[in-house]
Amino acid sequence: MNSITSAWNRLTGALSGTFVESFALLMSRVALAGIFWRSYQTKVVEGSLLQIDETQYFIFANEFTGLPISPDLAVPLTVYAEFAFPILLLIGLASRFSAAALAVMALVIQIFVFPTWAHFFGWDLTVLALAAIIISRGPGLFSLDALIGRFTGTQKSGGAEPRLA
Predict the structure, then answer these.
(1) Cα(25)–Cα(143) distance, rounded to whole angstroms?
(2) Rg (CA), the chain
(3) How far apart are CA 140 and CA 24, in angstroms?
(4) Nearest Cα to Cα of residue 101 among 148, 44, 165, 32
(5) Which residue has the higher pLDDT, 162 or 38?
(6) Residue 158 has pLDDT above 50, yes or no
(7) How many angstroms separate the CA atoms of 23 and 160, rounded?
(8) What SS3 state is found at 44?
(9) CA-wise closest residue to 91 among 145, 46, 131
């Protein structure tokens, strides 16, 4: 039994190291970014970067009627957020802020657009869990945040995330 415990301790020790954690944080950033990037792509003219598909204004006005702001403001805010924050997450720059912004978007969608438990447990909870991981643990070593942290001296020695000053 002691050899099984020892093997288990070695395995969990190796899997809880900084490299593995940073890889898991990278995958969390990619997953969260992917959710919103796919949504962004449905809102722009195919082949363009930021040319908003005019049908989005109709959809926001007629199907997302619970939003507390007008479609004229909600559509561009949504498109620009779904464009910028996933890119920032992928490169690991302002990762905690980006994850928090996407979590706020998810909450707005949950509260004002699809206020059902089925939506919460189907989509929203996944987004919030991924964002919470990134916000609480940081972006990991494979990020511009960590690289900047190393150069500015705000990176914890051996840690996965940069410290705040």
Answers:
(1) 10
(2) 19
(3) 8
(4) 32
(5) 38
(6) no
(7) 10
(8) strand
(9) 145
59 vs 31: CA distance, rounded Å: 26
Taken as a whole, the chain contains a residue count of 165
The per-residue pLDDT for range 45-56, each reduced to its tens digit, is 999 999 999 999
- As a whole number of angstroms, the distance between CA 58 and CA 140 comes to 40
Residue 7: half-sphere exposure toward Cβ, Cα within 13 Å: 4
Residues 28 and 126: beta-carbon distance below 8 Å:
no
What's the CA gap between 81 and 110, in Å, rounded? Answer: 17
d(CA 112, CA 134): 25
Number of Cβ within 10 Å of residue 71's Cβ equals 18
Q: How far is CA 149 from the centre of its chain?
A: 20
d(CA 86, CA 96): 12
Helix ranges (DSSP H) in 42-124? 55-62, 71-91, 95-108, 117-119
